[in-house]
Amino acid sequence: MSLPVFRDADIDPHALGKGPVAIIGYGAQGAAQAKNLRDSGHQVLIGLPASSVSQVRARADGFAVATVAEVAAQARTIALMCPDELHAQVVADHIAPHAPTGAVMVLAHGLSVHFGQWQPRADWDVVLVAPKGQGAAVRRLYEQGHGVCALAGVHQDASGQAWARALAYAHGIGAGRAGILQTTLKDECETDLFGEQAVLCGGLLGLVYAGYETLTEAGYAPELAYFECVHELKLVVDLLHRIGPAAMLGQISNAAELGALKAADRLVGPEAKAQMQQLLAEIQSGAFAEALSSEAKSGYPHLDANRRTKTAHDMETVGQAVRDMAMPPLAPSKDSA
Questions:
Q1: Cβ density class 293-321: b for 16+ within 10 Å, e for less
Q2: DSSP readout, 45-66?
Q3: What DSSP character marks residue 228?
Q4: Which of 147, 181, 234, 266 has the greatest CB tally within 10 Å of its CB?
Q5: In this structure, how many other beta carbons lie within 10 angstroms of the beta carbon of residue 230?
Q6: Where does the pLDDT of residue 180 fall: very low under 50, low under 70, confident under 90, or very high at 90 and above?
Q7: How far apart are the C-alpha atoms of 88 and 103, rounded to whole Å?
Q8: What band does 329 get if pLDDT is binned at 50, 70 and 90?
Q9: Which residues are catalytic?
């Protein structure tokens, strides 16, 4: 392991101080972190716009809710859990004029600061604590006595205690139970965006749609196409997650392994890798961050159009029928975060 790793035994959980923690936003990640921090003994305030529909859920979960400006004025620790493209406006309009001297700003993703979309006040500590898991997992594993690994780093150390404060926050959400890897906002941001675009979301979904359409256009039943190109992904991904790529190959059939070896270089050859390198270059240059900001300022037209197109795809209708038949009923969730 080349990155330094820190766990609960390495952390002073009191480094955040006694002031309340303000969570700005109450989506899946914000709600999970708020609950974990509360259960770790921190006073937590939720900051939301007056028009936010999340106010009802946050209050139902037992939190004090106020405007972003009101909670920023009270808190020593302020965690930005709203979308990255909104950070600049939220900080400029609602946090910077009100936050106390010496506050620590916690980011779950480094995009907005790394690409200069807003500048922190000189008296603030600015740190990264990025759980490597969705909000539901952050909460569920905490309740089970475990945690989700996190990346952590320091962008601005005004107090001389920024790293200790980052670790204390990570401890509060349970990450120290698993492992906190020390990195930089630059490296977290750029690798996270690349992973999403090239593999996890862009690459994977591109393969799923192309595979489904190839089979159905060749005359195969859409249910078969869905099973082979979507439903069974979980079997392979679970193996990858649990034992890694090489061991996964030992768990599949000889036919699957040989087919994978023959297909891999054809599907992801030099041209695909060149496109990945171009994606990375666009991320590193800030071009993607600028596109995200422009999309938000325009009211998300491209995202909305893409969502409509994907929702109308016949794979959605077929998929719902397959899921209703093939997936076991989900047990009621104790916590919806």
A1: beebeeeeeeeeeeeeeeeeeebeebbee
A2: EEE--TT-THHHHHHHTT-EEE
A3: I
A4: 147
A5: 18
A6: very high
A7: 17
A8: low
A9: 109
